[in-house]
Amino acid sequence: MDKGITQYEAGESVDCFLMIRSAVKSTAVNGNPYLTLMLQDTSGEIEAKLWDAKDETVKMYAPQTIVKVAGEIQNYRGRMQLKLRQIRPASPQDGMDAGDFVETAPLSQEEMADIITQFIFEMKNPHIQRITRFLLKKYHHEFLEYPAATKNHHEFVSGLAYHVVSMLQLAKSIADLYPTLDRDLLYAGVILHDLGKVTELSGPIATTYTAEGNLIGHISIMVNEIGQTAKELGIEGEEVMVLQHIVLSHHGKAEWGSPKPPMIKEAEMLHYIDNLDAKMNMLDRALERTKPGEFTERIFPLDNRSFYKPHFSK
Amino acid sequence: MDKGITQYEAGESVDCFLMIRSAVKSTAVNGNPYLTLMLQDTSGEIEAKLWDAKDETVKMYAPQTIVKVAGEIQNYRGRMQLKLRQIRPASPQDGMDAGDFVETAPLSQEEMADIITQFIFEMKNPHIQRITRFLLKKYHHEFLEYPAATKNHHEFVSGLAYHVVSMLQLAKSIADLYPTLDRDLLYAGVILHDLGKVTELSGPIATTYTAEGNLIGHISIMVNEIGQTAKELGIEGEEVMVLQHIVLSHHGKAEWGSPKPPMIKEAEMLHYIDNLDAKMNMLDRALERTKPGEFTERIFPLDNRSFYKPHFSK
Amino acid sequence: MDKGITQYEAGESVDCFLMIRSAVKSTAVNGNPYLTLMLQDTSGEIEAKLWDAKDETVKMYAPQTIVKVAGEIQNYRGRMQLKLRQIRPASPQDGMDAGDFVETAPLSQEEMADIITQFIFEMKNPHIQRITRFLLKKYHHEFLEYPAATKNHHEFVSGLAYHVVSMLQLAKSIADLYPTLDRDLLYAGVILHDLGKVTELSGPIATTYTAEGNLIGHISIMVNEIGQTAKELGIEGEEVMVLQHIVLSHHGKAEWGSPKPPMIKEAEMLHYIDNLDAKMNMLDRALERTKPGEFTERIFPLDNRSFYKPHFSK
Amino acid sequence: MDKGITQYEAGESVDCFLMIRSAVKSTAVNGNPYLTLMLQDTSGEIEAKLWDAKDETVKMYAPQTIVKVAGEIQNYRGRMQLKLRQIRPASPQDGMDAGDFVETAPLSQEEMADIITQFIFEMKNPHIQRITRFLLKKYHHEFLEYPAATKNHHEFVSGLAYHVVSMLQLAKSIADLYPTLDRDLLYAGVILHDLGKVTELSGPIATTYTAEGNLIGHISIMVNEIGQTAKELGIEGEEVMVLQHIVLSHHGKAEWGSPKPPMIKEAEMLHYIDNLDAKMNMLDRALERTKPGEFTERIFPLDNRSFYKPHFSK
Amino acid sequence: MDKGITQYEAGESVDCFLMIRSAVKSTAVNGNPYLTLMLQDTSGEIEAKLWDAKDETVKMYAPQTIVKVAGEIQNYRGRMQLKLRQIRPASPQDGMDAGDFVETAPLSQEEMADIITQFIFEMKNPHIQRITRFLLKKYHHEFLEYPAATKNHHEFVSGLAYHVVSMLQLAKSIADLYPTLDRDLLYAGVILHDLGKVTELSGPIATTYTAEGNLIGHISIMVNEIGQTAKELGIEGEEVMVLQHIVLSHHGKAEWGSPKPPMIKEAEMLHYIDNLDAKMNMLDRALERTKPGEFTERIFPLDNRSFYKPHFSK
Amino acid sequence: MDKGITQYEAGESVDCFLMIRSAVKSTAVNGNPYLTLMLQDTSGEIEAKLWDAKDETVKMYAPQTIVKVAGEIQNYRGRMQLKLRQIRPASPQDGMDAGDFVETAPLSQEEMADIITQFIFEMKNPHIQRITRFLLKKYHHEFLEYPAATKNHHEFVSGLAYHVVSMLQLAKSIADLYPTLDRDLLYAGVILHDLGKVTELSGPIATTYTAEGNLIGHISIMVNEIGQTAKELGIEGEEVMVLQHIVLSHHGKAEWGSPKPPMIKEAEMLHYIDNLDAKMNMLDRALERTKPGEFTERIFPLDNRSFYKPHFSK
């Protein structure tokens, strides 16, 4: 795809394939039903109205359908919309593949699996190593596919694994500079800290929260998993409690969802590494869409701040 | 014991048996070592200084030793102290028993066990009943002996079980008035909510926090136990998640240590019942020591408030 | 009324009587005026647009008019709307009564008056009894008709008295379990705590705040009333101050509108009983409209939480 | 009194009359009782230990006794103490008067009464004028004698009236600059805002809180008084509610004890005038004791800040 | 202009000149572009839709164009709108002047400059006087033209100077009542405190924040200017640091943008004077538009409160 | 020095040289003056009482005097004290050097200067490079000697430079992993962010705050310096504003003393790098003094948390 759907300016014409992310039927003020479609490619998404919402239409344009569209880009209250002139579902002859419309991590699942395996391989503490390896293996498939969140940061296919890979590299650099850190604990904490999200979230695409995600949360889910894994593997010793604590405390404060704050040095560092990587990801994505000399949109999880891109920025 | 040690006024003479709760060696400004003893009976405790702290003295007056003391009560900066004239360890002939010096719940362990068993017996949902019964049985001994906390409320031997019994009776009254409540869930929540304290705390006397208590906390400990119990008993179904949620959320807010707030009606009610019983316990204990027309000491966990006892109070 | 207006699904046809709760004239984007009607029966309310807002139309469809409507239910941005096909005011022949369209407490005014009178009758402290009886008598009519609030909980005709009756029963159960509580104080506190709302609010239907309600508030209004009642009845003694304190402090914290926090045991309990009953009322109403396995809408006064209804709920 | 007791430096000798503000009996580490005396003159107070606390001694040196002392000033942990060499109660021949040892406002009671009377005389709204005059007359004696607080600001004899006089002059200046302000309301608000303190506080000397002060507070006390006064004088009309609101809201925020925030322009201004005058009083008192180029002690009610006195200050 | 555009009621006809404050092109739900105009005169502003947004139309109705309009006032969701019947740009023959459509301070620039010059002239400390005079001269033109803010208070042409003039008069009154205040410091603080706004804001009309305003802020900008001015004028001595502190701290608290809280008496007073004048300005403007017996709109910077205008208000 | 003064256990004898850090004269309860000495070597400090405080004694044992002491270590209320048996000032023959008793950074000033120079040398943006080099040169001497704070972290001689060196290495690692970061900005931010401390603090030893430190603060001091440097060097362009912003915002939030939050990506990262290095320093120092299986003392700037050292820690 030469030019992503989010790179068009108002007034330009569009003629391309897109995937339906969501489709909501509503009723206009005049009583007629219509469909609001969110259409996406790997560059992001755009809204379009379909002024017809008969039952067969609704069925034809269900989420995850690939469509051929033609129309014009318009600015509606500050956000871009696609005014549809034509729309049809892609046919097999169009040779389209869902994977081509979904944003995904810049590394392949294999590359990421290799990097993480290498980190586990280097662990010296057998208890920590065995628990980490067991849990990663148990959720291997989901871990490599899920996003790290429904929005805000790393909210793309394989975002969870990609976030972990970045954090591992950051953890390694920091452990090189501060040699009193226990590398095994730090790496295990990075790998396990968000693994409960494979239960908390519904899946890699059109991601929402499961009931268990809402009522228990990924932190407690993974703390439980560590306890059960240790039992299954017959592992006893302080490492179990320490790993549970590191996962439990990684949000840093009670108000942010950690029932205990970090009380082990590596837990405190994990909290920092997690934040630093998540924020770099959010900032890079927001600044990509901003011209030098201008401010980004407000970024909600960064205290709703706008960031400035200096004129002399590369 | 006719008159408790905390019921003496300044100036009165004392001649009685007490138990040493703690003994701390310090050095006076002039360089001489001495012992600060906390001496207790079932009415409470009093401080005394022992102006000698030779090694054999320190050994002789270790915590949990029963001693015969004589001396005078004095007011030191607003708190009562016992100025010792004589002290000696009790001998076997004195016929003293440690249990006579320790505050304990007003119901016997058997009475409390019977009441709780009856509540479990009445449960209709077999999953909830089996998990509750299993965990209570697993920690039966500790549950009936531990306090509910190291301080603030129900901080006496068997305080945990007594708190649960009061809460069950309150839960029953409330369920009678609001028939949409699920009694099984509510009773199970009451019985399990603080059971993790038998791991969080060190024991029934001179209670402190264990490392696991500090790093994981009684809430997460019990959530894990419920998960493992369900696995062991082969129980599947939403009841497991719901019970975990009820325990997880019973502190009511993230800031108070619950990683998720109550999101099930019975969880919200459990939080209220827990608070109401704990506060009645604190208020009754503080007001017992206060004369009509006066204010209690400040009560820290009640937002550091003082409470007034009206003249017309019974 | 067999099926309430809020029980229809999108797509269903409607043909029934409803009462106009409010009617607001607006101008569409194209410059034409129209009416937005809120139509209610005892099950709740629904919005409808009337594409005509001539002066005579506006007069004909004023609030509290009963109308006959026919049309179709539609989902507009997640909320149900009634698309009107026909509308006309009810005529005398239709035999409709305003009372049939207004939600009201599940007990009759007489039943509630009887219960409350019985509680006052049982009071032993004559000062407390006389002040309570005097004030209840003074506002007898309004007390039995007013809602407990303009929204959130017990926001229906006679909601105030119904809230008081529930709280009295809860207070009785709690006093049975904790015998140190002064029943007279607790019952008087329950009966008087929100009585100032008959001055704070405008009336039983289409309720808003009066200027005095905004500037002084129901708490201070009732504290003043207690003082003046005592003066009128020639009552002196600490009971007056204590009753004033209990009303003054029943919101629990300065931030929530109580200039003094509870500093008397019964005041602390009143705050709990008030909260517990209000929350049960909100939860029951929200869960009634929720299917097992789903979450309620967010409930603003419950910290904006959604509540889950387990599959195994009755 | 040439040189006040707080103006001595460590090492200087003292030989003068002082008044006992408080006397507390304690027991030293070695078991001997002693008295801690707070001794005052109009410049402030100093602590002294009396190494004898026999019953007759305690009686002889009760609070509000005037004593002749001789001794030396010493610095004890950063605060001045008086090391007593000699002490005796003043005899009638010494010709001492309690009033000479108590700090008092810089204006006489008569001067202050005259100024305030003049402000009331200038009021044009008869309702506001009559209520204000009635209440001032009712508490005339206490109003002119009480302090404005137990500590922090205007905590001296007649401090309440002096605070009101300063505020009235400030209110007049501000009303001259902002002519839309209603002078009658503003002046009445200034005069009545703290008048409830004559019930809240115990008296002009050694001031503490009364039970009514603790449980109801000066704000609600005065709101009630205004209501009863209006009733007694047969005054009806919005002025009553508005005066009540102005008193009710003068602490500015719920957290600071006002159940309603200011919602009338003059109420908002009263809050500012009150704060401004109180802070000037605190700052002047703290800076008087500070040398140019240095910082004051921390001032608790000013957010615990220290203030700098520039070298070029007058 | 006899009757301001904000003084019309819904239903009235309008035929007058207005100035375009802003013009935003949007797309209607049906895909057609249109212009949303904000039209202003000195009484305030009103919204109007122009159902045509061709390129030449957009150019013709750019911001700051004066237009002749005819149409009708309508109430759209509680706010007034102008439904245009006719619109055309004013021609030279119409003899309109942009200055006639812009709200401006009630004093002329010359009057304000004279008053401020007089205050500077009266300063006795030459360091303070020279720095203040230099900076005022440097930004003389902008200072007399800029608003004090983009919204909330004194958001009109010359609002900054008018705010300073009011504050100087208030400062003088207060210094008359509290003679320990250093007038030079207080006056210099008033004059300089917001002078950085001439760099922070974009200009007197259609005011926005500059990049420097966003990234550095008017407080730090002016602190820097004071430092550089002192260097340029060769002034040394504590006055420089003290002036910097007074400007630095005038928002009162870290949360409100002052990196240091006031720690000099005159700094504390400046904070109060600034607030008091800003709030009087906001209250007067809101109450002007409110009838006796009613509440104003919510005023966001006054904690979002509504204010009541008593019936007996002048 | 074989064994540091903080490494002794209670009961051990001491015979060594120490430096007096502070000496405070006080008066005992019995009226006798004495000296409280804080004595230090590079391992930390210990308190000792000198029961004699004649004028010549006080002069002889002034701060920064090196003394020979003999005595015994005692535990006084949980903290170690040195009970002196003998003390004398060191004589020239003892050959002691003040530098041997003061904690200092683990790298020499030359090593640190070299590392920082290399980072400046690598900068590509000439504006950023020149401003950074100029300011570092201007304060070269103080920068290499000052601590980074009076307490909490890097509170030793050369602590400021050592903190900067660690942060530079961390910044480099992070920039390697996140290539969109502007290295010049990040390095300049690290070097300049705390440089204002050489004006804020009094010096490298016995460090306190200067008046300018209290009233203006190191952040605003350095923002001003950057502005004046740019003027002196004739540098214009956005780099000046951006560097000022990065220093201005490095505390991260208004509540923490930054008048503007980070609004440039490198400013956000600087805040993280600063925190991470400061916390590692605090944690390492606290955990050094803690045995495996135990908790550290509470660390105030880490939210007053205690940290656990696992048994399996290296």
UniProtKB/TrEMBL annotation, chains A, B, C, D, E, F:
Entries under Pfam families matching the protein: HD, tRNA_anti-codon
Superkingdom in the source lineage: Bacteria
Gene3D superfamilies registered for this protein in UniProt: Hypothetical protein af1432 (1.10.3210.10), Nucleic acid-binding proteins (2.40.50.140)
Keywords in alphabetical order: Exonuclease, Hydrolase, Nuclease
InterPro entries according to UniProt: HD/PDEase_dom, HD_domain, NA-bd_OB-fold, NA-bd_OB_tRNA, YhaM_exoribonuc/phosphodiest
Gene Ontology MF annotations: exonuclease activity; nucleic acid binding
UniProt GO BP: rRNA 3'-end processing
SUPFAM superfamilies reported for this sequence: HD-domain/PDEase-like, Nucleic acid-binding proteins
Residue intervals of the HD domain: 163-279
PANTHER family associated with the record: 3'-5' EXORIBONUCLEASE YHAM
NCBIfam families documented for this protein: PRK13480.1 (NF010007)
Name of this protein: 3'-5' exoribonuclease YhaM
Organism: Domibacillus epiphyticus
